[in-house]
Design a protein that fits this description.
single chain, Heat Shock Protein 90, six-stranded antiparallel β-sheet
């Protein structure tokens, strides 16, 4: 250390080699705060922990500044004893109130050797947290001239007062910590804004989708009322399919929302794969006929029983068939469903169409919740639901170009699933 540095920072003379080593290590670890800078709570906990190490203190706390109310509030308080949750929940300080308030108002450090005898000491904090403060060192957290909060360390571990060396090092530490807090807040604000924008876009899309369904329900219901009033069977026969199709769409929409609402364990049972595929096809049959879509189903040797969540597989197939029906050309649509076992003996179910296919740039996003290429005609739920159900089965979903230029979705389920009480059983390969 040069003589010039000692003249500029005379407090360094009092530092022992052990103190310098401790401080250097703590300040070095402070650079690691960049890894948690996106999580403010975690960041502040780390700051408190490192502050205890830097100052050799029993406890540390971070009080953030509420610029709207001009108050300090405890965000993080770490020590070996005391009710820290009550402290964070109940204690707020005005500028100038207590030693922390004085630190914030005057924007300078306070080193108090005997806190209990200092008239500025805010005893309510000790009473609330049930912590016994003896010595206290408070430093302001300031970034670019703006007050961020106050960092306090309490009770020197060796029982003595905090030193001038402790105070100077804590001032450097507080400055670095303030910059990290400001960065974390900016990141949280940006993430929050992006999330709100995404939610707004999703709600708008879902609203348009449900509005279209409700419009169909309302119009067909009015026609049905008119047909009943006039006893006009022709009007009833023309309106009922529209009403029934709209109720199915809203039922599927609600079921997709429920499926996505929470994690679930598949209810595996002995079920007929062929029957599940045919049921999904039958549900979509009216739309297939309306759009003159040619549908082929190839079950091969897997047309019989499997052990799986029948309702889950049904929902997967219904979503894939619905997407295929929307994608294919109106006059020459082709959709095929095929089930087989691959070389690894995994169960594979494919749904292929002759639509425009999935652009390569969209393939990484198509399973994301609310992502849709259909505008107001889609919800962005179907493929997200399908992916979730298949993953819950222990499988995965693949998407690639189809043999006829369209999209091919492949559900791959594990060859060997062993539910409780069925060890050694190959449930997906029962036939």
């Amino acid at each position: 250390m040069s003589g010039d540095v000692h003249e500029e920072m005379p407090w360094l003379h009092a530092a022992s080699r052990q103190e310098m080593s401790r401080v250097v290590e703590a300040l070095y670890r402070l650079h690691g705060l960049n890894s948690v800078i996106t999580d403010l709570d975690t960041l502040l906990n780390r700051i408190s922990n490192e502050a205890k190490t830097v100052a050799g203190a029993e406890a540390a706390s971070v009080m953030l500044y509420d610029a709207t109310r001009h108050e300090l509030f405890f965000h993080t308080a770490l020590g070996d004893s005391g009710d820290q949750d009550a402290l964070k929940r109940e204690v707020r300080l005005a500028l100038g109130q207590g030693i922390a308030g004085a630190t914030a108002r005057e924007r300078r450090s306070f080193n108090v050797e005997d806190a209990q005898s200092d008239p500025r000491f805010f005893r309510d904090a000790d009473e609330t947290s049930q912590f016994d403060t003896r010595s206290l060192l408070a430093t302001p957290m300031i970034d670019r001239g703006e007050l961020v909060g106050v960092l306090e360390v309490l009770n020197k571990v060796d029982g003595g007062p905090f030193t001038d060396f402790d105070m100077r090092v804590m001032e450097m530490f507080s400055s670095l910590a303030a910059a990290a807090v400001v960065s974390a807040r900016l990141i949280e604000e940006r993430v929050r804004n992006e999330r709100l924008a995404a939610i707004g876009q999703a709600v708008t899309g879902l609203s348009h989708y449900t509005k279209n369904i409700v419009t169909g329900l309302t119009s067909s219901a009015d026609l049905i009322d008119m047909g009943l009033a006039q006893e006009n069977l022709h009007v009833l026969q023309r309106s009922w399919p529209v009403f029934r199709r709209s109720t199915k769409r809203i039922a599927n929409f609600v079921q997709d929302m429920l499926t996505l609402s929470k994690p679930r364990v598949p209810v595996r049972e002995r079920c007929d794969l062929g029957e599940i595929i045919r049921d999904a096809h039958l549900t979509m049959a009216e739309l297939f006929v309306q759009k003159s879509i040619d549908v082929t189903i190839e079950l091969g040797e897997l047309g019989g029983p499997v052990m799986a969540d029948s309702q889950g597989l049904y929902r997967c197939l219904l979503n894939l068939l619905s997407n295929a029906a929307d994608a294919v050309p109106a006059s020459d649509g082709k959709v095929s469903v095929r089930a087989y076992r691959n070389e690894a003996q995994e169960l594979c179910i494919e749904c292929e169409d002759n639509g425009p296919g999935i652009p390569p740039e969209d393939r990484e996003q198509i399973f994301d919740l609310f992502f849709s290429t259909k505008g107001s005609k889609g919800t962005g739920l179907g493929l997200a639901v399908t992916h979730k159900i298949v993953v819950e089965h222990g499988g995965h979903v693949e998407v690639r170009d189809g043999h006829h230029g369209g999209a091919l979705f492949r559900l791959v389920l594990p060859a060997e699933i062993k539910p409780a009480g069925m060890a050694g059983f190959h449930p997906l390969l029962m036939g």
